[in-house]
Amino acid sequence: MGKSKAGQKLNDKQAAFCREYVRDCNGNQAAIRAGYAAKNAGQTASKLLRISKVREEISRLLGEILQESKIPLEKKIFDYWTVRAFYDITEIVGLDGKVKLTEEELREKGLEVCIDSINRKVNAQGEETLTYKFADKDAAVEMLQKYIKMIREEITLVGDLPIIKIAEKSALEVG
After folding, report:
1. What pLDDT was estimated at residue 7?
2. Would 1 be classed as within a structural domain?
3. Domain for residue 55, yes or no?
4. Is residue 58 domain-shared with residue 100, that is, in the same domain?
5. Which SS3 state, helix, strand or coil, does residue 145 take?
6. I want to staple 133 with a disulfide (CB 3.0 to 4.6 A). Which of 90, 117, 121, 140 is the partner?
7. What is the CB-side half-sphere exposure of residue 3 using CA atoms within 13 A?
């Protein structure tokens, strides 16, 4: 198998190899799944991965996979910061200062992200004291604002006019 020439398309087996390769990045198994002989699959995969069109197709497929996974990842990030910004402390801690929920209940409600740390201390009598550090709601709101691009450090306008730099105030500072 030689290097591909400019404009040359992948054959069916090469295209199948690319699709199989992005599943687990295992060249040997991808070659076998694509229909190449198992006996020489490792060598075949090595040769295929040296072909520029094959590498380009693998890159394109990986890009599609990353784009598809970006949306759920962005939702997870947004949900994380939303919970940290808007949790109700009284749902977690009672007026007596004691935690109302077990660790399992915190996880079930998605509130475990509101606790940054737990410090356990045992005194001389063997009594355990727990100190909780809760999420900084203001910092979480600021992070959300930045995430959804409500805060822009600087805007650069380019057009027929000279470049103008404008610093914006955050939504919390306007007033």
Report:
1. 52
2. no
3. yes
4. no
5. helix
6. 117
7. 4
Decide: 25 and 40 in contact? Cβ < 8 Å: no
User: Tell me: the pLDDT tens digits for 16-34?
Assistant: 999 999 988 889 999 999 9
Direct distance between the N- and C-terminal alpha carbons of the chain, in angstroms, rounded to an integer: 69
The tally of domains found in the chain comes to 2
Contacts of 80-83 spanning 24+ positions with Cβ under 8 A: 80/113, 81/140, 81/143, 81/144, 81/147, 82/144, 83/110, 83/111, 83/113, 83/114
Element (H, E) at 131: strand 128-134
Render pLDDT for 56-102 as a digit per residue (tens, 0 to 9).
Answer: 999 999 888 877 777 777 788 888 889 999 999 999 999 888 889 88
Q: What residues form DSSP beta bridges with 130?
A: 120
CATH number at residue 58: 1.10.10.1400
Same-domain check for residues 75 and 65: no
Higher local confidence (pLDDT), 173 or 134: 134
111, 92 Cβ separation under 8 angstroms: yes
> Which residues constitute the domain of residue 65?
12-69
Q: Going by C-beta distance under 8 Å and a sequence separation of 6 or more, which residues neighbour residue 52?
A: 3, 4
In a shared domain, residues 58 and 22: yes
pLDDT one-digit tens code per residue, 137-171: 999 998 888 877 755 555 555 555 555 555 554 44
